[in-house]
TrEMBL record, chains A, C:
<dbReference type="InterPro" id="IPR029061">
    <property type="entry name" value="THDP-binding"/>
</dbReference>
<feature type="region of interest" description="Disordered">
    <location>
        <begin position="1"/>
        <end position="27"/>
    </location>
</feature>
<dbReference type="InterPro" id="IPR050771">
    <property type="entry name" value="Alpha-ketoacid_DH_E1_comp"/>
</dbReference>
<keyword id="KW-0670">Pyruvate</keyword>
<dbReference type="InterPro" id="IPR017596">
    <property type="entry name" value="PdhA/BkdA"/>
</dbReference>
<dbReference type="Pfam" id="PF00676">
    <property type="entry name" value="E1_dh"/>
</dbReference>
<feature type="domain" description="Dehydrogenase E1 component">
    <location>
        <begin position="67"/>
        <end position="329"/>
    </location>
</feature>
<protein>
    <submittedName>
        <fullName>Pyruvate dehydrogenase (Acetyl-transferring) E1 component subunit alpha</fullName>
    </submittedName>
</protein>
<keyword id="KW-0560">Oxidoreductase</keyword>
From TrEMBL, chains B, D:
<dbReference type="InterPro" id="IPR033248">
    <property type="entry name" value="Transketolase_C"/>
</dbReference>
<keyword id="KW-0560">Oxidoreductase</keyword>
<feature type="domain" description="Transketolase-like pyrimidine-binding">
    <location>
        <begin position="9"/>
        <end position="184"/>
    </location>
</feature>
<protein>
    <recommendedName>
        <fullName>3-methyl-2-oxobutanoate dehydrogenase (2-methylpropanoyl-transferring)</fullName>
        <ecNumber>1.2.4.4</ecNumber>
    </recommendedName>
</protein>
<dbReference type="InterPro" id="IPR009014">
    <property type="entry name" value="Transketo_C/PFOR_II"/>
</dbReference>
<dbReference type="InterPro" id="IPR005475">
    <property type="entry name" value="Transketolase-like_Pyr-bd"/>
</dbReference>
<dbReference type="Pfam" id="PF02779">
    <property type="entry name" value="Transket_pyr"/>
</dbReference>
<dbReference type="InterPro" id="IPR029061">
    <property type="entry name" value="THDP-binding"/>
</dbReference>
<dbReference type="Pfam" id="PF02780">
    <property type="entry name" value="Transketolase_C"/>
</dbReference>
Length: 378, 332, 378, 332
C-alpha cells in the first residue's frame, strides 16, 4: 500500500479521532477587535439610554468623590491604606450596575468602589482598609465576595460559584474583576480554562490600567491585547475603552446576557488608567511621567460622559449640581462615620477560626482574657 | 440509600463507600478532581460515583490543582460541599495559595458568614514504591495553618467514619489518606458502619504501662507491631492513634503519658519541624513532672523523600522504634 | 467644548498612551493554521531530506523497540513504572534530533525516549523509573533537564535557562516538552508569558495525545486548538501532525531557528495519540474504545514514514532490516544491563541534601550507620 | 567596588547594600521580582540596583510568583545566582510548588550535579499595620522542607552579613526579612562591614543566668526589652538570636539552656506546629536533666493573622514573655 492509497490521503487526511478532541476551526470569530470599542463621541452614542446614562453619571460623580474622600481618610489616619480608582470609575460603576440583584460580584483588592456602587455601605466596604476585620459585610447577603488581596485568586472562586449556581438551576451570573498585572498569575489561566470547559456563566473584567504598581504592561505581556487571551481558552475576548462608561456597560451587558443565556464566559479588557498612585503609600513619580498622566486627564471618564450628556441635552446644570450634592452628602456622612473609632473586641481573635473553638484556642483565649483583666485592673 | 452490593473490605473501598453514602444522603456533596470520574481515580477510590450520581456530581476537572481548589471555594461559597481529590501529596502543592490564603481563612475573614465546608483528600506517605514526588508526607504544612482540620485514618473503620465526619464538618478538612494502607483489610460491614467518630478524638489502640507510642496514619500498624515485639524486651507499650492532627486530642495523649511516664512520637514525615515536634513539645509542657525521660521521636529523616529502593531505610520501622524506646532512660 | 471638538475625536480617538502598552494590532498573523501541518503523503514530501529521514526512521524503529522493552521490564519487575510513548515516537525523535549540541531539552516525565534519542544512555534515562535515584545522569553534561514529574513545572525552568544563556551571549535554545493536560496548569501560563515578555529562545512542544491519564481533551480545554494559546502570549502557535516525523521536525526546526535568531518563543502543538495505556499500571479500557485506538493504528508514525520512504526509494528492505537489527541490539543490551540489580548505598540518603551536611543530618547518618552495622553483624 | 556614598543606617539600607555589593563582586548575581527595578521594590530594598547594573541584572518580572521562582531555577541551572524577591510573605505561596518540588530537591535529585544557589527574599511578619495577607509569619512551611536553608536577621549588621552569606551559599536560602525591623537603625559602617557570619550560627545577644529566651528576627528586640524588664523581677535572662532556623545551631542553644536550666522560645508565627515546637522538643531531648521546668513558648496565637487594630494582642510582647517566664516553676 502506498501513501496515495491511504484512506483519505491528501491535504485534509487525518484519522478520525472522536469529535471530543478534534481541533476546532472556528478560531477567527474569537478574535477581539483590534481597537477598543467606544460609544461616547461616536455615532453609537445616538442610541444611549438617557435613564441609564443619568444613573451612570450620578454614580461616576459619587465614585470620584468617594475616591477623594477615601484618600483623604488615609491622610487623617482613618484608613490604613487606600488603593484609589480615580480614573477607573467607569469600569467600577459599569461592573456594579450591569449585574442583576441575584448576580455575584468578585472584586479585586482595588474595587471597593464597585462594591459601593452595587449598594454596599462604604463603611462596610472599607472595613479591611481601615485595619478592622477583613470583610465588613456578609458576602452572601450582598452577593459580593470578599475583596481579594492575593491577586487573581478570586477568579476561580467566581467560576466555581457560577458553576454551582448553574448546577442548581439558578439564574446567577458572576462578574470577576482583575487587573492587568493579575492576568499573569497562574490562577487567571486556570480560572479562564475552567470557565470555558464548564461553560460557566462568568464574565471576567480585566481593568488594564497600564500598571501593576510600577510595572508597565509591556513588561507584563507581549500579547496584542489582553482580550486576545480569550482565544486560548475558546472564549470571546472584547476590548473596550475603559473610560467610556457607556461602552463598558454595553460590552459587559452583552457578556452578562451571553452568560445568563448559556453562552458561557467572556473575557473583557477595559483600557483605562490609574490617575492616582498605586495606593496612598506609593510614589508614582518613580515610574511614570507627568505627561502621561496629563494625556489621560484629557480622557477622564467623568468628563467624557458629562460632555456627551450635556451636548445631547440628557444632562443639564441642575442635574450636574444634584449629582455633586449627592456626592458631597455621601462624602460628609462617610467622613463622619469613619471618624468614629471602631470598637473591636480582642477576644474576637478566637472567634470564627473554626465552627467550634478547639481546646488549644480556648486555652489561648483564657490567657488573653486574663491579660486583659490584669491590664484593666492596673 | 445506595443499593451497591459489594462489601467493602479494604480501606480504599471504605473511603469510596463513605463518598457514596455522603453523596446519597446530601445532594450538595460534589466530588471533583483529576481522573475521579470515568476512571474512578488512580487509586479507584471514586470508582462508580460518576455512574451513580452523574458527571456533574463527580467531575473530571482540567489538570490544575489551584483551579480545582479555587473552583471548590466558589462552589462552597454557593452552598455546595465539595470533596476535592488531589492525586498525590506533592501534587497538592500548586493549590497551596488557595488553601492558605482562602480555604483556611474564609470563615475567619467573613466573621463566620461564609464557612467553607470543603474536604480535601490527599493520598500521602511512602512505602508503595512510588517514584519521586509520589511519597511525600506533607502534613507539617497543613498542621501549621490555622483554620484547617487535618485528619488521617489508620484503619478501615476510621477511613469510613472520619471521611463521613470530614464531609459533614462545616470547616475545611485536609483528609490525609495513607497510601500504603489503601489495601489493608478489615471485617468491617459497610451496611452497619460503626458510629462516626467526630473529628478530634484520639484512641488508645493498645493499652500498656511502660511507655506510650503516639502515632497516626501509616505508622499505626508499625507501632502496633513494635509494641508486640517489645514484649520480648519486657516493655508493655501503649499505642495512641491520633486520627486527627488538628484538633490535636491533647487530653488523651497527656493522660496516657502521665500514666506511662515515657513517650515516643512516630511518623513518616521529616522530623525537623514535623508534627512530632509539636506533639513532643506539648506533652513536655503538660507532663513535665511525670516524664522519666525526654519525649523522643522516630520520624523520616530530614531529607527529600528517597527513591523506592532506599525508602525502607527512611521509614520508621519496628527496629528503629524499639531502639528509641531503649533510649528512654530505663536505668535512671 | 463638545465631544466633536475633542482632540482626535472619532472612531480612532484615543489619547496617546506611551507605546509600551498601546494595544498592538498585528493579531492575525499569530493565529495558527486550522489544520495540522503535514508533510508525509502530501506534495511537501517532495522536499524531504533523505539523510535526515533515514536517520529519523532508524530512530523511530529504535524508539518503538525501546518502548516495548521498557514496558517488558515493568512486567519483569525491573522498572517500577513506565509511561510509554508508543504512537508518540515521531514527536520524541523530532524533539531530540532538532536540537544542536549546545541546546537544552526539558522533558516531561513521559519523555525518556526523547532523552535517549538525544544520546543519553537508556539505563541512565530509566534510573528514576526503576526506583533508583531521580536523575541518573548529569543534566549539564547532557543538557537534558531532569525528568519533570510535577506537570508543567519544567516550563519556567526552560524559560529561565534560555533567558540566562541569552543574557550571557550564548547560542542556546531550550526545547520544553509538555502534555495536553499539562497546558491547564498555571505554570504553563506563567512560563509562556515570561518567555514572550523576555523574548527568550524557547520552543514549547505540546504533545497532544488526546488524554491526561483518563481525561480527554474536551474536558481539558475549550480552545480551538492548543496552538491557539500562543495568541494570548503574543507568540506564534503552530499546529502539526504529531505522527508525521517530517512535519514535526520541520516545524520544530523553524521554531528553533526563530528562537536562535532572536525571534523569540514558539508554541507548537503536535497532535498525536498514546497507543499504550498511561503507564503499565493504567487500564485504558476504562476510558477509551478499541475503535479509537484502531483508527490511530492506521496513522502509525513508524509506518507512515516507512511507507513514504519506501515509496520514494529512500529506504529499502536492507535499510529496514538494518534499523530493526540495531533496535534489537539496543534492546538486548538494555535488557541485560537492566537485569543487574543497581547497588545503592543507604548512606547516600544523607548526601547532596545540602552542599555541606548539617549537624542534624550527621546525627541521623550516624544512627543509620549503626543500624546497618548491627544488621550486618547479625 | 561600588562608589555609592550613602551610609546605610537602617536594615533596609543594609539589605540593599548587601545586594549591591554582591552584584558588584559577582556578575552572576541577578535580582528579580515584582517592582524591584524601576521602583526599587515596595520596601525600596533594591533601590538603585537597576540603574547601577541595568535592567537585565535587576529585572521587573511579570506578576507571577511561580513563574519568577521557576525562571530563577532555570537561570540557576545555567550557572547564575538569582536573588528573588517575593513582595510579601503570603504572596510567596503561589511559588510553593516550585520551592518544594524543585528548589529544595534539585541538588538531591541530581546527586549533587545541579545545585541551585537561589536566594529567596521574603519580607515577613506583622507589626506594621499591614492589612490581611501582608503580615504572615510563614517560616514553618520553609523549616519543614529539607534542602532549604532558612535565615532571618534581627540586626542591621546581620542583615548585611547574612544576606551576603545567603547569596554566596551554593544552596537555596529562604531569606526572611522582618518587615517591622526594616527601619531599625544602627551605627554600622557599610564601608567596613563586619566579617560575614556563616549561615547556621546562633548568637547569645545577652548573657544571663536565670533562663534563656530563644528567638529570632522580629522578636529579638522584644526579648531584649523583656530581659531588661525582667531584672526588676530578679531574673537575669539570657537571650539567644538563632539567625538561622535551618541549619539550627543546637549547640549554642543547648549550651545556654544547660547553663540556665530554663528556656522560653519566642516567635511571631503561630505556635501550633511552628518552629518553636521543634526548638522546644529538641532542647528537651538534649537538656532533659538540666531543665528545671518544661520549655515554654510565647508565640502568635493559633489563628489567621488578625487585623492591624488587634495585632498587638496577637504578637508576643514583653508582658506575655514575662508572664511566661514566671511560669517556669521558680518555686520548685
Ligand atoms: C499574589 C500576589 N502577588 C503580589 C501582590 C502584591 N501586589 C498588590 S497590588 C499589585 C499590583 C497589581 O497590579 P494589577 O493586577 O494591574 O492591578 P492594579 O493594582 O493595577 O489595580 C501587587 C504586585 C499581591 N497582592 N498578590
Ligand atoms: C502537578 C501534577 N498534578 C498531577 C500529576 C499526576 N499526573 C501524572 S501524569 C498526569 C496526566 C498528564 O497528562 P498530559 O499532560 O496530557 O501528559 P501525558 O500523560 O498525556 O503525556 C497526571 C494528572 C502530576 N504528575 N503533576
Ligand atoms: Mg494594573
Ligand atoms: Mg496527554
Amino acid at each position: 500500500m502506498t501513501v496515495q492509497e491511504l484512506p483519505g490521503a491528501g491535504a485534509s487526511y487525518r484519522p478520525t479521532p472522536p469529535p471530543s478532541w478534534r481541533p476546532r476551526t472556528e478560531a477567527a470569530p474569537l478574535l477581539p477587535d483590534a481597537e477598543p470599542y467606544r460609544v461616547l463621541g461616536t455615532p453609537a452614542a445616538d442610541k444611549l439610554d438617557p435613564e441609564l446614562m443619568r444613573r451612570c453619571y450620578a454614580e461616576l460623580v459619587r465614585g470620584r468623590r468617594y475616591n477623594a474622600q477615601a484618600t483623604a481618610l488615609t491622610r487623617q489616619g482613618r484608613l490604613a491604606v487606600y488603593p484609589s480608582t480615580v480614573g477607573q470609575e467607569a469600569c467600577e460603576i459599569a461592573a456594579a450596575l450591569v449585574l442583576a440583584e441575584q448576580d455575584w460580584l468578585f472584586p479585586s483588592y482595588r474595587d471597593t468602589l464597585a462594591a459601593v456602587a452595587r449598594g454596599l455601605d462604604p463603611v462596610q466596604a472599607l472595613t479591611l482598609l481601615r485595619g478592622d476585620w477583613h470583610t465588613g459585610y456578609d458576602p452572601r447577603e450582598h452577593r459580593i465576595a470578599p475583596l481579594s488581596t492575593p491577586l487573581a485568586t478570586q477568579l476561580p472562586h467566581a467560576v466555581g460559584l457560577a458553576h454551582a449556581a448553574r448546577l442548581r438551576g439558578d439564574d446567577v451570573v458572576a462578574l470577576a474583576m482583575v487587573g492587568d498585572g493579575g492576568t499573569s498569575e497562574g490562577d487567571f489561566h486556570e480560572a479562564l480554562n475552567f470557565a470555558a470547559v464548564w461553560q460557566a456563566p462568568v464574565v471576567f473584567l480585566v481593568q488594564n490600567n497600564g500598571f501593576a504598581i510600577s510595572v508597565p504592561l509591556a513588561k507584563q505581556t507581549a500579547a496584542p491585547t489582553l482580550a486576545h487571551k480569550g482565544v486560548g481558552y475558546g472564549m470571546p475576548g472584547r476590548l473596550v475603552d475603559g473610560n467610556d462608561v457607556a461602552a463598558v456597560h454595553e460590552v459587559l451587558a452583552e457578556a452578562v446576557h451571553r452568560a445568563r443565556t448559556g453562552g458561557g464566559p467572556t473575557l473583557v479588557e477595559a483600557i483605562t488608567y490609574r490617575m492616582d498612585a498605586h495606593t496612598n503609600a506609593d510614589d508614582a513619580t518613580r515610574y511614570r511621567d507627568d505627561d502621561e498622566v496629563a494625556a489621560w486627564k484629557e480622557h477622564d471618564p467623568v468628563e467624557l460622559l458629562e460632555r456627551e450628556l450635556t451636548a445631547r441635552g440628557i444632562l443639564d446644570e441642575a442635574g450636574i449640581e444634584a449629582a455633586k450634592d449627592a456626592a458631597e452628602t455621601m462624602a460628609a456622612a462617610l467622613r463622619e462615620r469613619m471618624n468614629a473609632d471602631p470598637v473591636l473586641d480582642p477576644m474576637d481573635l478566637f472567634a470564627h477560626v473554626y465552627a467550634e473553638q478547639t481546646g488549644r484556642l480556648r486555652e489561648q483565649a483564657a490567657m488573653l482574657r486574663a491579660e486583659l483583666d490584669a491590664e484593666a485592673q492596673g | 440509600m445506595t443499593t451497591v452490593a459489594v462489601k467493602p473490605a479494604t480501606m480504599a473501598q471504605a473511603l469510596g463507600r463513605a463518598l457514596r453514602d455522603a453523596m446519597a444522603e446530601d445532594p450538595t456533596v460534589h466530588v471533583m478532581g483529576e481522573d475521579v470520574g470515568t476512571l474512578g481515580g488512580v487509586f479507584r477510590i471514586t470508582d462508580g460515583l460518576a455512574k451513580e450520581f452523574g458527571e456533574e456530581r463527580c467531575t473530571d476537572t482540567p489538570l490544575a490543582e489551584a483551579g480545582i481548589l479555587g473552583a471548590a471555594v466558589g462552589m462552597a461559597m454557593y452552598g455546595l460541599r465539595p470533596v476535592v481529590e488531589m492525586q498525590f501529596d506533592a501534587f497538592a502543592y500548586p493549590a497551596f495559595e488557595q488553601l492558605i490564603s482562602h480555604v483556611s481563612r474564609m470563615r475567619n475573614r467573613t466573621r463566620g458568614a461564609m464557612p467553607l465546608p470543603i474536604t480535601i483528600r490527599v493520598p500521602y506517605g511512602g512505602g508503595i514504591g512510588g517514584v519521586e514526588h509520589h511519597s511525600d508526607s506533607s502534613e507539617a504544612y497543613y498542621v501549621a495553618t490555622p483554620g484547617l482540620h487535618v485528619v488521617t485514618p489508620a484503619t478501615v473503620e476510621d477511613a469510613y467514619g472520619l471521611l463521613r465526619a470530614s464531609i459533614a464538618s462545616d470547616d475545611p478538612v485536609v483528609f490525609l489518606e495513607p497510601k500504603r494502607l489503601y489495601w489493608s483489610k478489615s471485617e468491617w460491614n459497610p451496611d452497619t458502619p460503626a458510629a462516626v467518630p467526630g473529628i478530634g478524638k484520639a484512641l488508645v489502640r493498645r493499652a500498656g504501662t511502660s511507655a506510650t507510642l503516639i502515632t497516626y496514619g501509616p505508622s499505626l500498624p508499625v507501632c502496633l507491631e513494635a509494641a508486640e515485639a517489645a514484649r520480648e524486651e519486657g516493655w508493655d507499650l501503649e499505642v495512641v492513634d491520633l486520627r486527627s492532627l488538628v484538633p490535636f486530642d491533647e487530653d488523651t495523649v497527656v493522660a496516657s503519658v502521665r500514666r506511662t511516664g515515657r513517650a515516643v512520637v512516630v511518623h513518616e514525615a521529616n522530623g525537623f519541624g514535623g508534627p512530632g515536634a509539636e506533639i513532643a513539645a506539648r506533652i513536655t509542657e503538660r507532663c513535665f513532672h511525670h516524664l522519666e525521660a525526654p519525649v523522643l521521636r522516630v520520624t523520616g529523616f530530614d531529607i527529600p523523600y528517597p527513591p523506592p529502593m532506599l525508602e525502607k531505610h527512611h521509614l520508621p520501622g519496628v527496629d528503629r522504634i524499639l531502639d528509641t524506646v531503649a533510649r528512654l532512660q530505663w536505668e535512671n
